[in-house]
Every structure is written in C-alpha cells, then in structure tokens.
Amino acid sequence: MDYNSQRTKLALPEYGRNIQTMVNFLFTIDDKEKRNRHAQTVIDVMGNLYPYLRDVAEFKHKLWDHLAIMSNFELDIDYPYDPPSPDILTEKPKIVPYNQHRIRYKHYGRTMELLIESVDGLEGEEREIMIELLANHMKKSYLAWNKDAVEDKKIFKDIAELSKGKIVVDEELKLTETKQILSSSKPKKKKSSTSGKSHKRY
C-alpha cells in the first residue's frame, strides 16, 4: 500500500502531488528549449487551478516563483522573472511595531482621543454637532464595558479631561438614554419559522 506519509514531502501541498510530479519530470529533459516549453505548460496547468487569477500579471509572477520553490531552486530554465532566492523560505517576518501611546481610558480607545483632538480645530455649529456625536459614542463605549448606568456629567468630564480642558460641554446637552443604548446593543431574537402557529401531530 502506498501511503502519503511514506512519500516525499510536498514543497507546496496546495498544488497537489500530480503537479509536483510534472515539475520533477522537467529535470529529465536534457534539451533546454524543450524544457522551457514544458515548464510553460506546467505553469499553465498551475494557473488553471486558479482561473480567476491566472491572467493577473502579479499572479503569473507568483506561479513562476512557486515553480522555483517546487524545483528546489535547481531547475535550469529561462525564467520570465528574476527567480526568488532560497532565503525566502527561511526569512523571518518583520517585527510589527506596537503603539506605545498610553491610553487614558481604554474603554474609549485611542481613536476617540484622536477624534477629540480634531474637534479643537472646528468652529460654530460643526463643532457643536461633532461634540454631541463624540459624547454619545463615548457613552455607548462606556456602557459596552461597564454595564452599570453612567451619568452624562461623567462623559462631559471625561471629554474635558481628554481634551485637556479645550472642550467644555454644556451640561444641558441631552445624550441618548442609557436604556435605549443597552436595548439596541442586545442581540435580536430570531422569529420562529412557525409564526406562532401550533402543529397537531396525527
């Protein structure tokens, strides 16, 4: 019995063993021109696995890179693109830089702090509308993390603190009611497919 576990490990399993066998066959062709033509045929077959991408230039480049990988970078053909280096298989990913900015209130998030900073440059009605929108969103964010009720004055105080006193909200401003925010955040129950009708069993 021929088991996959006993076979040679595939460099790119997504192409399957038949494609790998075709790549291995290219090494048996002595004539380079003929080997080039057969290599193009293998590329065409590989592209047929992804017909919606095979005509995209970047994807064609990737196919030739994959051919180089499956041939262990040892196939002597005329690549239409610069073949990749074997180092790409051992190359370590780049370190992702993490934001070191200290967030004063994590339930509001860094984006909210940036939005509050942007309000400082607004004037008149546009400024008032933006402040009201931010205050309502901050209240919603607060309740998402703290299920207890929150007074509007607390939100206004946080805005003043995050804006370093540049934004003072009129305490007469009425924000969305807590009950309305909490009820809208609850998942809606799916209606029964029977629409309340009872079915008798016979």
How would you portray this structure in words?
By secondary structure, the protein is mainly α. It has helices at residues 16-26, 32-48, 57-70, 109-119, 124-145, 152-162, 178-185. α2 (32-48) packs across α3. It has two domains: 11-89; 109-184, no CATH class.
**Percent in strands:** under 5%
How many H/I helices? 7
Integer-rounded radius of gyration: 31 Å
- Overall geometry comes to elongated
What is the distance, rounded to the nearest whole angstrom, between the alpha carbons of the first and last residues? Answer: 55 Å
Helix content: 40-55%
Q: What class would the helix/strand composition place it in?
A: mainly alpha
How many structural domains in the coordinates? 2
Largest sheet: none
Low-confidence stretches: none
Oligomer: single chain
Q: Give the SSE order as H and E letters.
A: HHHHHHH
What is the mean predicted local confidence, pLDDT? 84
Task: Offer a few descriptive terms.
7 helices; 47% helix; elongated; mainly alpha; single chain
Structure described in brief:
Helix 1 packs antiparallel against helix 2 (32-48), helix 2 (32-48) packs across helix 3 and helix 5 (124-145) packs across helix 7.
Protein topology:
Blueprint: H1 16-26, H2 32-48, H3 57-70, H4 109-119, H5 124-145, H6 152-162, H7 178-185
